[in-house]
Amino acid sequence: MKYISTRGQSPALTFSEILLGGLAPDGGLYLPESYPQISDADLTAMRGMSYAELAFAILSRFVDDIPASDLKTIIDKTYTAEVYGFTRQGQNPADITPTLKLDENLYLLSLSNGPTLAFKDMAMQLLGNLFEYVLAKTGKTTNILGATSGDTGSAAEYAMRGKQGIRVFMLSPHKKMSRFQTAQMFSLQDENIYNIAVEGVFDDCQDMVKAVSNDAAFKADYKIGAVNSINWGRIVAQVVYYFKGYLAVTNNNSQKVSFSVPSGNFGNVCAGHIARMMGLPIDKLVVATNENDVLDEFFKTGLYRPRGSANTYHTSSPSMDISKASNFERFVYDLVGKDSAKVRELWTSVDSGGSFNLTEQGYFDKVASFGFVSGSSNHANRMRTIREAQQKYGVVIDTHTADGLKVALEYADKNTPMLVLETALPAKFEDAIAEALGHAPERPVSLNGIEALPQRFTLMKADAGAIKDFIAKNT
Ligand SMILES: *Cc1c(COP(=O)(O)O)cnc(C)c1O
Prior knowledge:
A hairpin with a 2-residue loop joins strand 3 (99-103) and strand 4 (106-110). This protein has a domain at 93-117 and 237-437: Rossmann fold, CATH 3.40.50. A six-stranded mixed sheet has the order 3-4-14-9-10-13, with helices on both faces. Strands 8-5-6-7-15 form a five-stranded parallel sheet, with helices on both faces. The chain has a two-stranded antiparallel sheet with strand order 1-2. The chain contains 18 helices and 15 strands. By secondary structure, it is of the alpha/beta class. Pyridoxal-5'-phosphate binds next to helix 11.
């Protein structure tokens, strides 16, 4: 299995070769040359599998340059009840991603039981183990540099802490994350984790990362790596739970299900699209956005119009506050019939601050055949949905999941199970939950008092030179 770029001008590479990188050299995103197909018999065989067995059955179809027994060991060590233990009362941690029935044909797919209480742990924990394995094999090391407003940075740090050959330098805007998120990250005492609080906003952090990435010599000398949302390893790991969710709510392969996905950078729902392309019987993929509705606008009109960071709203579902959807190019590549020249043309416009309209270009009609529909939410919808979920279903959900549920209900049909992906636990966004319900959500007992733990971080000016000096001094 080789991986090619959506822009068609980079050499084809193996899984391990693209694992540690970001964009392809031609500016595109990596995709497999073709999607492996799951037969009816394969799907039937998957019905009895544990999460780790299922993950191996799926990932081994995408990874052919790591010996199967090694891949299996890495997967078995990742998907355990110990790692994904923050399940709700009554749920079995051994299920890794348990489903919770809310109503007739309406379910929550719990993806946020990992160490940082958000779905990003599902892929990032695997990535940490894969990175360590591939680096050990090649005798290399890497310094991961990233910017975070909360969920990505903590998931990356909890996945990479203590790993051989890996250091993490994570920039976050000083005093802009929630107290809980700050405590989650800054209380880590592992020597290979460097938290850097930048005197500025998230965009300043991102600009510092970009400046370092654009310095090719520094990047090579200091082996700078990334774990951002376009990383193929993250996408492919997320394919697994679409299968798990499907199998949990069906008993034969002629049934279809729909998924509602709280979306930002389009990584999560892109994995759902890939599951569908592999042959998983998915009816609808519901793209749910918040006030930053660039994706909702596209799926309703065919117009893709990134907003720019100055026009990005700060919302109460902050992990979906994006100006453009980084992974969207992967879907558009399939939509335009794998025509990489077309993708280059479209992104020439996007990369220079423009937009494109696929209705005018005759491609938009095909969106429905891929099962995509969409909707958006806002703060008032979110608060009401959190209250109604508690009253009607007796469950407290977080703000992002509330956006997913709100839009799911607009597309729910009585005959098709709808699974709403739970992308974070409410404990992670206490203030918003308290606003909705009048009281803070329950927090896992082992995380009580986390804000009082000693914190380890470095305060830094928003200056690319400062982070370069810091990396140079600490490697
Ligand atoms: C990252 C994140 C999202 C958005 O996921 P994408 O893959 O970027 O679409 C949604 N909800 C939560 C809680 C997140 O952390």
